[in-house]
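User: I'm preparing a small set of examples for a lab meeting where we compare how different chains pack in three dimensions. I only have the primary sequence for this one, and I'd like the structure in token form so I can line it up with the others. Please keep the answer compact; I'll paste it straight into my notes.
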Amino acid sequence: LKKGKTAKIKTKLIKEKKTKKPIMHVFSAGKGVGFWSTDKKTAVVTKKGKIKALSKGTCRIFVMAENGVKTSVEVIVK
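Assistant: Understood. Below is the structure token output for the 78-residue chain.
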């Protein structure tokens, strides 16, 4: 991302067939998901997954479902 620009992380909660517990799949918007940045000086992320690039650098944005399933994406701000 370029400094000052935004991007959106899209998530979708799906249920596993055997356990009926939600799992996270990163494709389209869903509920029960939390987001956070490893470096809030480089990029921040809202509760709805909107990332804003603040300053040059690299950080990771983590996405976690209520059941603990998580993933992350690397954000490079130029």
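A couple of notes for your slides: Residues 60 and 74 are 4 Å apart (CA to CA). The longest strand covers residues 57-65.

User: Perfect, thanks.
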